Amino acid sequence: MFESLRNAWKVEELRRKIGFTLLMFLIFRIGAHVPVPGINPEVLEKLFEGQLFGIFDVISGGAFRRLSVFAMSITPYINASIIMQLLTIVIPRLEQLSKEGEAGRKVIVQYTRYGTVLLGFIQAIGMAIALGRPMQGMPPAINNPGIGTYLMIAIILTAGTAFLMWLGEMITEKGIGNGISLIIFAGIVSRLPSGAASILQQLSAGVIPITSVIILVVLGLLIIAGVVAVNEGQRRIPVQYAKRVMGRKVYGGQSTHIPLRVNQAGVIPIIFAMSLMLFPVQIARWIDHPWARAVESALGFGTALNSVLYALLIIFFTYFYTAIIFNPMDVADNLKKYGGFVPGLRPGRPTGEYINRVLTRLTLAGAVFLALIAILPNFMITFTKIPTLYFGGTALLIVVGVALETMKQFESYLLMRHYQGFMK
């Protein structure tokens, strides 16, 4: 592995991409420590106690608890992306744009940016107004509540989200890996040391036994092994190409396969579902009304309704995102165009239906696995008796999934230059 890292550093283009990505990470971490002006940090710390906002704080890399300029993280962009992808299915104009290649994709991306700013401003103005009122028997978290202060805070938070969106796009374009996923990855990883220190502090104080820490480590290793196995697992559909004689040369005749991954959607369903589950509870937290308290208690972290809805959303988004990125009929048409066929099946529609049937079963297995991993923290808290366990299966799934995808990009760059890659 160290030899592969040295080889990666020898490639000038790869070295430049790595350096740019690390620089963007540094900017992200600096911004996470720049607080929004006019906030009372002591009141804010008490308001954000609890497991729900502990999870959100992990995703934002600690920016949410400090209410820094990046407090809303990249969540509005994720929500805007979900809305745009849903609208692409129901609005013919957007569906046509999605089929126009790079030009259409740029227009959809631009609409997503506008949606991000709009959703971010709505969320930010709601947070500002809520923080400007007394909550839970405590004074307002904003020092001088007023329309001007609310607008200032909302504009700063929206600008922070827009800047993070741009940062993610720059990483995707000039760095290595998917920028948005890497920003979430960096936020989670930055919180792991403080989480580990908190567990060690509780262990030394006798709050939790050593067996709980051992169970936590074992479960963590099992989750990592399971995530790697499912992410790398695939079903290979054999494909045979017919021989074609052109002049004196014979083309085709070789055998190959179509790799169908068990987890075709990666970590995207987890991120989508998490954003949707956090949004209503976060809004309810800022509203002082009995029905808002009912929503918060029903959908709070660890409740049965929260776990069921979270799992169902993950399964839905796994199928939804897989359907967007992989079209079995297009694969079957391309095979037919180039003289390929699946042994025992007619080219064209029968092949597409067979691939779709296999993909549906594989996706079900991957979706159920993602859902189980996502709700695992509830059981981990029960088994380990660690009440402040904010990062669990979901965080590990995102970290391992993003790390694997980024390593594959490293692999492709190294193999293009005849170096041996990381994955042997």
From TrEMBL:
What InterPro entries would the database entry show? SecY, SecY/SEC61-alpha, SecY_CS, SecY_dom_sf
Give the signal sequence positions.
none
The answer to keyword Cell membrane applying to this record is yes
Q: How does it sit in the membrane?
A: Multi-pass membrane protein
* One GO CC annotation: plasma membrane
The main location is membrane
Q: Tell me the keywords, alphabetical order.
A: Cell membrane, Membrane, Protein transport, Translocation, Transmembrane, Transmembrane helix, Transport
Q: Which residues cross the membrane?
A: 20-39, 74-94, 114-135, 147-167, 179-200, 206-230, 267-287, 307-327, 362-383, 389-407
Give the SUPFAM superfamilies listed for this entry: Preprotein translocase SecY subunit (SSF103491)
One GO biological process term is: protein transport by the Sec complex
Where does this protein reside within or beyond the cell? Cell membrane; Membrane
State whether keyword Transport applies.
yes
Quaternary structure, per UniProt, is: Component of the Sec protein translocase complex. Heterotrimer consisting of SecY, SecE and SecG subunits. The heterotrimers can form oligomers, although 1 heterotrimer is thought to be able to translocate proteins. Interacts with the ribosome. Interacts with SecDF, and other proteins may be involved. Interacts with SecA.
Q: Which family does it belong to?
A: Belongs to the SecY/SEC61-alpha family.
Task: Write out the function statement from the record.
Answer: The central subunit of the protein translocation channel SecYEG. Consists of two halves formed by TMs 1-5 and 6-10. These two domains form a lateral gate at the front which open onto the bilayer between TMs 2 and 7, and are clamped together by SecE at the back. The channel is closed by both a pore ring composed of hydrophobic SecY resides and a short helix (helix 2A) on the extracellular side of the membrane which forms a plug. The plug probably moves laterally to allow the channel to open. The ring and the pore may move independently.
Protein known as: Protein translocase subunit SecY
Species name for this entry? Thermacetogenium phaeum
